[in-house]
Amino acid sequence: QVQLVESGGGLVQPGGSLRLSCAAAGVKVTTYTMAWFRQAPGKQRELVAQITSGGATNYAASGKGRFTISRDNVKNTVALQMNSLNPEDTADYYCCLPAVGSWGQGTQVTVSS
What we know:
By secondary structure, this protein is an all-beta fold. It contains no helices and eleven strands. Strands 2, 4, 5, 6, 9, 10 and 11 form a seven-stranded mixed beta sheet that branches. It is globular, with a radius of gyration of 13 Å.
């Protein structure tokens, strides 16, 4: 059984940074593409970034140049480093293993002064 647990969300001022982490159990993060999605209030869930089993990364236009997805093969985690945050980044962020349709419970990110 796959379990994904996110952490690292919180309140940050515009221009600040946050690092989200997704701890995976029941699957190795190197086996499948892992992804981060987000859902802002009143909006549809959208892809933020993904990393393939081969290590290739892909970003939504909104985060390109500001966000970095990475994984730690030893800790079996996937991280999302977010820099230069702005209020439009406020959302619940979810870790996802698309191949099996597994989602974490989400972690809230609020960007506000």
